[in-house]
Automatic annotation (TrEMBL):
This is Fatty acid synthase-like isoform X1. The gene is LOC111362696. It comes from Spodoptera litura. InterPro entries: Ketoacyl_synth_AS, Ketoacyl_synth_N, PKS_Beta-ketoAc_synthase_dom, PKS_NRPS_Biosynth_Enz, Thiolase-like. The lineage of its organism: Eukaryota, Metazoa, Ecdysozoa, Arthropoda, Hexapoda. Residues 23-263 form the Ketosynthase family 3 (KS3) domain. Pfam families: ketoacyl-synt. One of its GO terms (biological process) is fatty acid biosynthetic process.
Length: 263
């Protein structure tokens, strides 16, 4: 079999992406997030520095006692709170909206503010939204279990809306979609955002990911899965963890209006 020839330009493409020319750098200028018992990145930092155990066995999510269902999980606070009027969400929509969508909206706003950008100045700009998400445990409840219909169930629990609702609220015109590659979803969202900025599809990007553990049977499936782990051994107990994280990226040369340059 003849050897496969690879163009020299292709061999250098990875080096060019990781070593951009001066002025072509893509910067992370803002960050925000919810983490187990930590309402912000600063809260998480303080809890980690103080060696606080953020896995708890309280019954905030479920009270089902089963030997194979993880009882110690990382839980986000205040899932039932959301300022619907601030984000322009109809009150009926707010009651059927996936909690992940509410979290991502809130943290997208905070990440933009953390980047030194007034969210109002993003309207009409080429800002993309790239969200990584795998499971939505609210879909099954609203689509198949509840007989109540209020005209907002599909748009409230569709994973496509995790990204699209942020774009709609901010009024941005860049690419907007949700990526599902299982455990690597958020990483691939970051890769897509980086490439979109480098290729000129957008000047800035909001990148995020979220995971919520609302139903014990999903955690049971993960805990019982036969998939291999990095060490080659399964842990005695799989611990489910909730989070919601947002980053704001911009091009060093073409930041959106009002974006400060920082690393």
């Amino acid at each position: 079999m003849a050897p496969t020839s690879i163009a020299a330009d292709r061999l250098q493409s990875g080096h060019r992406l990781s070593h951009p020319l001066p002025g072509d750098e893509v910067l992370i200028t803002g960050i925000s997030g919810y983490f187990p018992d930590s309402d912000s990145v600063i809260d998480l930092q303080e809890n980690l520095f103080n060696k606080v155990d953020l896995l708890t066995n309280d019954a905030r999510r479920w009270k089902l006692a089963h030997p194979e269902i993880p009882q110690r999980t990382g839980k986000i606070n205040n899932l039932n709170k959301f300022d619907a009027s601030f984000f322009g969400v109809h009150y009926k929509q707010a009651h059927t909206m996936d909690p992940m969508c509410r979290i991502l909206l809130e943290k997208a706003y905070e990440a933009v503010i953390d980047a030194g950008v007034n969210p109002k100045t993003l309207r009409g700009t080429k800002t993309g939204v790239f969200i990584g998400a795998c499971f939505s445990e609210s879909e099954n409840q609203w689509f198949y279990e509840k007989a109540q219909v209020n005209d907002f169930g599909i748009t409230g629990c569709s994973r496509a809306m995790l990204a699209n609702r942020i774009s709609y609220w901010l009024g941005v015109t860049g690419p907007s979609y949700t990526i599902d590659t299982a455990c690597s979803s958020s990483l691939y969202a970051l890769v897509h955002a980086y490439r979109a900025i480098r290729d000129g599809h957008c000047d800035a990007a909001i990148v995020g990911g979220s995971n919520l553990c609302l139903h014990p049977y999903v955690s049971l499936q993960f805990n019982s899965s036969p998939y291999p782990f990095t060490s080659g051994h399964r842990p005695l107990q799989w611990h489910a963890t909730e989070l919601g994280l947002q980053l704001f990226l911009c091009n060093h040369c073409k930041p959106p209006r009002g974006c400060r340059h920082s690393t």
